[in-house]
Amino acid sequence: MTAEVTDWLAGHYAELTGALLGIIYILLSVRQKVLTWAFGIATSVVYAWVFYTSRFYAGMGLQIYYVAVSIYGWSYWMSGKQKGKPGELPVRSSDRTTAVYGMLLAAGSFTLLYLLLSLKTDSPVPFMDALTTALSIAATWLLARKILENWLIWILTNLLCIGLYAYQNLWPTVVLFIVYEALAVYGYFRWKRSMQVQV
What we know:
The structure is a single chain. The protein is an all-alpha fold. It is built from eight helices and no strands. It is globular. The N and C termini lie far apart (57 Å).
């Protein structure tokens, strides 16, 4: 039994490392800590490899996007561009323009990714891979801008990812996304309370 556990851990070390880093990343983002973006970069590098070896090509490409948006989010949160003090960017709700940009970003990303995955790769699940990736692109952009509704998109995306990764037998990642789901719900209500305090 011990040998089987050791073999399993050895075969899944990258996925387990990514899961641990990912949990730290979400905990920090729920608490609105700028350090979240450093852990976001580390998580993305590890998961780029995990998704490449699992043939989730859109998921792998998403990790590259996450690195870029983590750099942007880090800079944006540090600048405190809104009414707050430097480094204390306040949470805000989405306005109509931001919502439209988010929907266009998700729809455009989904269309391009689905066509690419279904026509040019051997992805076993091109529709779901493209959908979860497109939603994640929009949600991360909103998170980087400290928009409350990013958590609502994450709640939907995490549910879809739990099913998708279970289908591919990525069980440590399934556990990670169950934790992500609980933290997304918690994050939504915590950020909403922080908005009320800001007023």
